[in-house]
Write a structure and sequence with these properties.
Length: about 270
Amino acid sequence: MIAFVLGGGGLLGASEVGMLQALAEAAVVPDLVVGSSVGAINGAAVAGDPSPGTTDRLADMWAELGSRDVFGSGFLGQLRNLARTRVSLHDNDALRSLITAYTGDARIEDLTVPFQCVAASIEQAGAHWFSEGPLVEAVLASCAVPGLLPPVSIGDEHFVDGGLVHSIPVGRAVQLGATEIFVLHVGRIERPLTAPRWPWEVGLVSFEIARRHRFTEEMAGLPSHLKVHVLPTGDDATPLANLRYRDARGVRPRIATARAATAAYLAGA
């Protein structure tokens, strides 16, 4: 069973689109898709339609992230939204609209390829895996970055970004029976960590240690018979965090770079 595992990373997740394009060109089709945070958006699209045309439409969607102003409203608008909600700088209306435009009212259990995405349950203080129900709500929950987007209420629980509990959920794919895994990520795992030099770097480095720790442990504990491909982004300077999270100008170049790097990797695999 071939599984695609897609991790989180905000607008840096454009790299995953390039990887998906290269995989489609190499005729690698998943039997299972698992996603976290922005990887849930990319993963849901491919699980809904794994044909090559989907990756091109996905690239167009990423290009729209800037024009649709998903994280828009300006500084004063952000302050007004924070005053109104008390928990987030932005609402998720624009992101909901964008996801809906590309997925419709699909339910997870009706997708072409089995799909799961993860979010962090506030009430349960742990991971919650969505394997059925409305797709848009599950993806929104997985993408609800604390402080930027509001928690998503589903049933009696509130959910925030899946990257808090499973940034790159390789272990879940193994649990679901994967025998070959393609890991799609935003590139930070390729960058060595160094001690922070400035106050704002302390939180970034600390979070990066936490998010890598689980991934590293899961990779180390994989069964020996399992084939795992950690696909390259082609970008040696991926930041630990995209502090300019509203700037979508680098989307197309990231897609193209990851597409070329992954195509070269697959050709030699």
